[in-house]
Amino acid sequence: MRTADFSPASRKSLVPRWGRLALIAIGLVYLVLLVALPLGNIFLQAFGEGLGSYWQAVSTREALHAIGLTLLIALVAVPVNTFFGLVIAWVLARQQFVLKPLLLGVLDLPFAISPVVVGMMAIVLFSHTNGFLGPWLAAHDLKIIFALPSMILVTTFVTLPFVAREVLPVLLATGTDQEQAAETLGATPFQIFWRITLPEIRQALLYGVVLTNARALGEFGAVSVVSGKLINETQTLTLHIEQVYTEYQTTAAFACASLLALVALLTLVGGEWLRQSREQT
């Protein structure tokens, strides 16, 4: 009986040369129209009136405060999600328990749920007027909504899965043989993690941190709901871009947007470098 040949050479012959070229051209045109041209136009618009206008746009008091607040939120959210992402990934990879599928589903919830809904969830919990914890927070003069704590909370929520989702497959793939061998030799849990587990997951962990940081810096929907958009108080860089754009300050809007685009490009380059490094190790 003749068996099918699925070798690479055979697969190439299934699509004629003109067909492959057409598919490549379609893919490239789609990416150029959808990604490269709009992204390039951001930088063209940002520098359209010269470097002086660009610098003036990104160095106003409002812009600098928005940049500082954005970095502050990321400075809190990224380490928190790095730690808990590692813990969640380790628990899912190394432990067996009844609610494991449920925990996996909950871990992916921030990917599936709209950031606006995340903001509304925070309102329902922490608002002084109609929040579940509102009366208690008001009685203790604690302000969460329309203040920095709620912005950190929602940003932490939407960036939760990245580290765990990057580290989990690596932990599953590496198994526990080396860790068990080290344990039989008398290594402590910390020594096992530091000398065996961490080197194995290092690239995945760094990639997860890079993605978490990029998502935290660019978050808009959830922060928009809970921040109140108070200029020089609770306005992040994305909210500042929206504000100046709606005020027809297009150069300022595109200049600040170019900063976020630059972070995205650097993230892409860093992520690709880490991915290739992981494949080579």
Structural commentary:
It is built from 14 helices and no strands. The protein has helices at residues 8-14, 17-46, 50-58, 61-94, 100-112, 115-126, 134-139, 148-158, 161-174, 177-184, 189-218, 221-227, 237-246, 250-280. The mean pLDDT is 87. The longest helix is centred in the N-terminal third of the chain and has 34 residues, at 61-94. The chain has 281 residues and is mainly alpha-helical. The chain is 79% helix and 0% strand.
Explain briefly what this protein structure is.
The protein is mostly helical and 281 residues long. The chain is 79% helix and 0% strand. The chain has helices at residues 8-14, 17-46, 50-58, 61-94, 100-112, 115-126, 134-139, 148-158, 161-174, 177-184, 189-218, 221-227, 237-246, 250-280.
